[in-house]
């Protein structure tokens, strides 16, 4: 079974990628939470992989974080939920939000995810309430894991983007991508609210 892939991002769309590993292109299905945090086409990336083999298919599902992978595994363990619904669920809500909704038994909130009916939401809560508590709140969260000063700046930038009408998940993913780029370029001095918002807006508009 394939558990991890590292290679060049050859193609990306909102539901699948092609990762070039030494000349071999692997098609990987991903949730929006992973898609929004991807590097540019042609850059190197690493993905956690869950391989699902069926009689007529051999499919790879990829995730950037351990939390996404764990939640996907829990979701597809629920009766009548397959990989497609699992990805759709992760695309509609962040791992942290979904975890809290399950723990609180908030069926209505889970039901608000497009494609997730009330009965499916009820099964998710019933079968996963005791399991998802084992998932540590997203350790890679840009806000939760930052130092106190940076955390304040990120929190203000995130709040501003949400006030501009962007969904929290999309805004977090854009900020994650921006902060990673600044750190890779040793440009952490640019961690200002204004710079983060401008850079994140470029990511969200697809101009970078």
What does this structure look like?
With 208 residues, the chain is of the alpha+beta class. It folds into 3 domains: 4-63, OB fold (Dihydrolipoamide Acetyltransferase, E2P); 66-134, Orthogonal Bundle (DNA polymerase, domain 1), CATH 1.10.150.20; 148-205. The protein is 46% helix and 19% strand. It has 9 helices and 5 strands; from the N terminus they run E-E-E-H-E-E-H-H-H-H-H-H-H-H. It has helices spanning 32-35, 66-76, 83-92, 95-103, 107-111, 118-128, 148-163, 168-184, 193-205, and strands at 4-12, 16-21, 24-29, 44-54, 57-63. Strands 1-2-3-5-4 form a 5-stranded mixed β-barrel. Strand 4 and strand 5 (57-63) form a beta hairpin. Helix 7 crosses helix 8 and helix 7 crosses helix 9. It starts with a strand and ends with a helix. The model has no long low-confidence stretch (mean pLDDT 85).
